Amino acid sequence: MTLKPVVADLTWLGDLRFEAAVERASVTLDSTGVTGPSPVQALAAALAGCMSMDLAHVIMRGRHSLKGLRTHVVVHRAAENPKRIVRAEMRFSIDGEVPADAARRAIELSRDKYCSVWHSLRQDIALEIVIELNGVECK
Fold first, then answer.
1. Are residues 33 and 98 in the same domain?
2. How much of the chain exceeds pLDDT 70, in percent?
3. Is-contact 111 118, C-beta < 8 A?
4. pLDDT tens for residues 4-61?
5. What pLDDT, on the 0 to 100 scale, is given for residue 31?
6. Do residue 33 and residue 50 come from a single domain?
7. Which residue of 55, 59, 77, 117 is surrounded by the most CB atoms within 10 Å?
8. The domain containing residue 73 runs over which residues?
9. How many domains does the chain have?
10. Residues 54, 9, 48, CA angle at the centre, nearest 5°?
11. How far apart are CA 75 and CA 89, in angstroms?
């Protein structure tokens, strides 16, 4: 089965700003990060969004009571051009009756199998993940 390709159309708005339209949604990309996310900021949000959606999906399919999910991502970039992402740190704060092992397994599935954004990036990027369940960090 072949998936439908993703098509994005960008329209220059002036300076280093573009409107990016994808299907029925659009976002302004701004090199300065003022009127919208920069491309790297959008990539960081896409990575966090992809893994968060996988995490929520796997937890709910496991019939666990997910009450809330917040994700905080910090990406570190190389100092030299092309200033690519070299490391990402994510903290998933989960509220509800979700066992730590179920959260860990969901994140493992996202990272190793499901997250298309992560698998589209270079695999030498260090990825550090912290899970917090009901306000308590899991080790």
1. no
2. 100
3. yes
4. 999 999 999 999 999 999 999 999 999 999 999 999 999 999 999 999 999 999 999 9
5. 96
6. no
7. 55
8. 39-138
9. 2
10. 20
11. 6
